[in-house]
Structure formats: structure tokens, C-alpha cells
Amino acid sequence: TVFDRLQQSEHELNKLIQLAERLKHELPRSQYEQLQNKIGQRQEYLQTLLKTCQQARGEHEHMVKTQNKLNEELIAINDWFKRLIQELTQPIDLNLSLNNVNDIQDSMAQLDASIDQRLLRLDQALRDEPNLISSNDKEIRERLNTVEELKHQVKSHLNKRRTILDDIHQRMTQYLKLTTDIKTAICDADFKLAPFFDGYARNRLDEHERELNSLEQICNEQKNRLAEAHKLVDIFRPHLRNNAKELCDSQLRNFHQTIEDLETRIHQRRKELDEIRQKSNRFNSSLARLQSDTERLLHMIDKAPDSAETLILEIDSTFSALQYLGRDLKKSLDVSSSSDIDRELKDMASSVETVRDNLDRAKKSYEENDSLRDRIERILNKVKIFTNRKRQELHQSIDSGYGSIDLTRRSIDMKSFIKDVDLEASQLSEVNDLIVALAERKCDQQIIRLLEKKQEDILQDLLNLKNETTKTIENLDLQVQEQEKLRQNARTMLSIIQRTKVQLIELRPTMNDEADQRLKKINDDLTINFE
Fold first, then answer.
1. What letters, b where the CB count within 10 A reaches 16 and e where it falls short, cover 2-22?
2. 305 in a structural domain
């Protein structure tokens, strides 16, 4: 090598110096000095060459060491890239956690930075040693080419892995947000549905219906979210660990089951709500009908207690059915609505009891009014019978009076007859008082008008009878006067007849008996007709 040749030249130079020392006394001084100068120059040049050679040798050794280190680094990088390629081509094994994805993404970023940093050091080393790679150093060039190829492969796999991780991160974020929203919505729906188990508010049935519709809509929205969550899971499911897959499947199944349970409970609550609405409508209609019946019955009681008594039995039956319906309805209502039902039933019971009390009072009043009416009827009938009887007696007296000559006694009897009529008419004042009492007791005005009409008719009939009797008495008084005149005339005629009889006796004694008989007959006729 160059260094060996230099060492050999140095050895020869040393020999030459030794030879010059031996020839020092044999050569001329000028030649000797000239030889010394050449030897010195040669020695300096040789020292320079030695130094240059040593430096070149040191540089060469350093270059060799650097090349060896470069080879080792290239081999290590190649092996590292191969391992990375193998690792990056392996399936991603993730937990169902964004932290896990973030950690892997961070590791990918760190790996990318490590690759860039390591390759940067390699490039820096090559730039620092431009002569590090000689034109005939194929092995290093091949390794550098391999590193470059592997770098592109690693970068490609790394970018692909990062793209996959970014997509997984996005999908998993959406999935976790969806599941969180689903869980929140389900919990909120369950919270809103919970009060339904404590009973329904009867005055908020429409609001309950809207709440159930809202909850049903929430369930439908969550089912749509679950369908979207399934699609998201299908995207990143291949990159999950088995336990993460099971956890994900379990979550989705639980959400499905919870939503189905909610829908079942909502359906049950809706069914209960429909039943409550029907019962409440029946209760309200029955209550309104019962209130109407009680009000109608209160108006009927004063007029027709007997008919009202039949209706009160129907009301009692209806109220019993209403109480049963109310008790059944209360089972599904809240405390406030149950209290309202109790209050309405209590008010209705009070109304029914009021009707019953009014009916009892009306029956009692009706019986008393009926008793008063019967009493009035008896008095009026008695007066009517009395009037008819007296009128018949009057007519009979008038008819028979034509054959009677005791007109004075008959006149006295007629005046007594009028007293009886006046006495009977005085009883009608009691009828007035009784009718006033009926009016004060709010008896049926039609009945009062009929009684008043009957009283007026009987009173008028009685007055007519009195007028007839008065006229009869006046006629009798006239007849008495006429009778008195007739008697006076009869007595005059009798006196004349007696005088005539005496005269006849005196004229014809034989006719005495016949004359006595005729005179007796005349006397009897006068006695019968004019006494």
C-alpha cells in the first residue's frame, strides 16, 4: 500500500543518511552539503508524505468505520422497516374507547416522526460525508435503495393506518355520541314514563296522550339512531378486539331491549289511558245524567211524588253503578284525581240525599195536601149533596104545597130552610182557608184552580138555592095573604050558608037532613082547603 511504500522509502532514506555519514569525510564539502540538502529535502518531503499518508489512512479508517456504521444503520433501518411493515399490515386491535384510538394515533404520529428523524439523521450523515459512498460501493447503494423502497412502503402503510384510524376515530366518536344520546333519551323517557305508574290525572288525559305520543316518537328516534349506530359499528367492527365486539353487541342489544320494553310500557300506558278515558267519559256522562235527573226530579217532586218515587229508585241504581265505576276509575288515577272523584261522588251523594229528603218532605207534604184536598172535597161534596137534597126538598115542598093550606107553617119551614142553607154556606169559608193553606204549601196550581172552580160552582149553586128558597118564601107569603083573604071569604060564605040553611029549614023542614049533609061537606072542604 502507499503507507508501506512510504515506510520503505523512509527506511531507504535512513540508509542513505547513514551512507552520507560514512561518506562525510570522503566527499568534498560542497558535494556533501549538496547531498545533505537533498537528503533533508527528501526527508521533509517524505515526512510530509508520511503525515499525509497517516492522515489519509486515518481518514480511510474513519471512512471505513463510518461505512460500517452506515451499513449497520441501513441494515437496522431495513429490519425496522420490515418489522413496521409487518406490524402495520396486521389487523388493528382496538378497545371500544377513544382513548385507545387516540393512543394508537399518537403512536402512529410518533412513529412517523421517528421515521422522519431517523431518515433525517441518515441523510445528515450522508451530507456530512459526501465521499462516504464511492462509485464502486454497490452494497451501500443497494441498501440505500432498499431503505428508500421500504420507507415508501412504511409511509404508505402508515398513512393507510392513520387514515383508517382517523375514520375509526370519527365513526367511534359518532357511535359513542349516538349511544350516549340514546342512553340519555332512554333514561329521560323512562323518567317521564315513571310518573304514569303513580296514576293518571283525570283532567290531564289529553296532556298524558301527548306525552305518550312524544315518548313514542322518542323511541322511534332512538330506533333510527340505533340503526345508524349499527352501520357505524359495521365500519369499525373488524378493527375491534373480541371483548370490545362483545361489549358493543351487548350495548346495542341492551338498547334494543330497553327501547322494546319502553314501547311495551308505552303501549300498556296507552291502553290504560284509553280505558281510563272511556271510564272517565262514562263517569262524566253518568254524573251529568244523574245531576240532570236529580234536578228534573226536584221539579217533579212537588207535582208528582209517586212518579218521583219510581225515579228515585232508578237514581239509586244509577248512583250505585256510578260509585262502582268511580272506585274502579280511582285505581288508575293519581291522588288528586282520586280526591276529585271522591268529592264528586260525595257531592252527588249529597244531591241524591237531598232529593230523597225532598221526596220524603214532598210525600209528607203531598199526603198533607191530599188530606187537605180530601177534606175540601168532602166539605164541597157535603155542601153539594146538601144543596141537591135541599133543592129536591124545595121542589117537593113546592110540588106538594099546592095541596096544602097551612102556608104559614110552610113559610116558617122555608125560613128555617134558609137558615140551614146559610149555615151550610158558612162551611165554605173553611174551604177558603184550606185552599189558601194549599196555596201556601205550594200545591199544584191546577188542583187549586179546580178546587176553587168547584167551590165557586157549589157556592153559586148554594146561592141559587138560597135565591130559589127566598123566592119560594116570598111566594108563600103571598099565598098566605091570599089564603087569609080566602078564609075571610069562606067565613063570610059560611055565615051566608048558615043563614041560608036556617032560612031553608024554616021554608022546608023535610030537607033538613040533606041540607045538613051538604053543609057538613062544604064545611069539611073549607076546613081541608083553608086551614
1. eeeebeebbeebeebeeeeee
2. yes
